[in-house]
Specification:
CATH topology of the largest domain: Heat Shock Protein 90
CATH superfamily of the largest domain: Histidine kinase-like ATPase, C-terminal domain
Number of helices: 19
Largest sheet: 5 strands, antiparallel
CATH class of the largest domain: Alpha Beta
Structural class: alpha+beta
Low-confidence stretches: 226-235
Radius of gyration: 47 Å
Distance between the termini: 100 Å
Strand content: 15-25%
CATH architecture of the largest domain: 2-Layer Sandwich
Length: 601
Amino acid sequence: MDYNIYKLLTPITVGFLFLSLSISIQYLNEKISKLIFLYQLSVLFYLIINYLEFISNDVLYIIFFAKLGHLFLELLAYFWFVFALNYTGYDHLIKIKIRVTLFLLIALNMIIIQTTDIHHLFYLEYNFSSKSGYTVLNADYGPLFWVVVSYSYVLLIAGVVFIVTSYIRGRSFLQVQALLILIGFLLPLVTNIIYVFRLIPTFNKDLSPVAFGITGLFIFISIYRFRLLHFTPLARNIVLHDLQNSIITLSPNFKIIDFNERASSLFHLSDKNLGDNIGKTEVGMFIGNIKNYVNDNNGSKIIKELEGLKYEISVKLLSKDDKTCKAIIINIFDVTDKIELIERLGDSNARLKEMQEQLVHKEKMAALGEISAGIAHEINNPLSFIKSNLKLLNKYLNNIQDGIADIDSRKYNFKEVLELVDESNEGVLRIGEVVYNLLNFSRDNQYEKTFQYNINNGIESTLVLARNQYKYKAIIKLELGDIKTFMTSGNEINQVLLNLLTNAAQAIPDGVNNGLITIKTFNEAGNVVCEISDNGEPISADDIEDIFSPFYTTKDKDVGTGIGLSISRGIIEKEFGGKLFVKESKIKTFRIEIPYKDNSL
């Protein structure tokens, strides 16, 4: 009877194997599919070789096929074990070196089996009998037989243990998948044990090859019904179980096929929702029209509020190599704390920026205080001769009014009177220029309107304010080019220019009669460049790296604060995206580079 059952089931089983192989081959780009394909291929060869042994009447062929069958039994056990590792997510537990070793043991086992006629440790002896018209091999097993067979049993049972473990941890949707796989692989294991240990005396034929082939039927059902190879297997429980994010997996037609515990709790999802269109569930009502996310598919994220908490929603398409969608992953996570932190950081940044602006303004006022004596001198000089001229003019006019003098008399030189008036007007213009530039310089930058600023004009304006700093020490040599303009209020650049000019003047010792400050402007590589050089005391190599650091100064305490250059560099770099540095040259040169590409005329 057992021979007839074997003869009947073998062609049916082979047919199912070819069917499941044809399905698996469509998904060979997926690792799980490759392993199942290799397992099924090993089963197919095992079944064919076993069938050839069954129908052969030549004892040599029977022995050959019997020995070769053990090779494919071990191969299918190996691929089953590796499949179970990957399916359950435990593949990280077995290092690649161990897997290679397990695979090489198959070759060692084959050597043992093929040389059994020499050492008689696999088969002690074997004979043949005729049953139901078939020649049957009857072998007495040697000690190495149990070692070799144990190799296959250990791998098969270990794979079953991994599947059972994940079955216990999984939800019902994935438990059905695992249950089908377990049934498929326990069946051949049980039949092989019955045959090897002769647990049913009336069964003389090993039906495990057929049983292994039947596993193809269960895999076929899993693929067809549950898309085993198309979606995430049991390993997702290990990865996603403790995630605080809500993860929902959809099919290409927007039906729910998977979700984690967090999504179940937040949106009241259960296994009954599997297969439902997402639009009919709470999560669908929360996120809105899923098609809008899919059509966008540019990585954009949307913030929505639920029960007083803010959630970020992102949607990702999982695609095959041919760009067709195979699944849609929705990721929803709580960003309430993140948004609050960003808002607090925004407030802190605003306060920090305000403090920086105050510091810049205070440094500007400090610079004004430093040159205030010179500015007062620049105003007092013209005021003195204006006062003297007005006094003399007043005398002339009083004499004319009293009739003491003859208007036509040569005693009074009217040309001299006109010269006094012109000189007074010139003095008034000088005072006006100083006051105008002083007012412009002292204004708060954040309230100033921007315009197309020409740094040449800024240099000339700054020279007026700083005149008393350099006029007794150095001459100014201007080499101003035809330069590009850029948008700014001008005050911040002028503050930098004043700092550099003041530093240049202070670097030239008192009493020097050949002091020289050279100011150049030109366009270079998309930048407006301004270079300010002086022939005063050089910067030492030790100081050149630190001069832009806050509160670092080589001046006396009552001369400098040590933040002027630091603030100046901050203005150029942060406000204009430019550079301020000391240029390597024979004379000390500070170089300003400001890009004009985006907003120049």
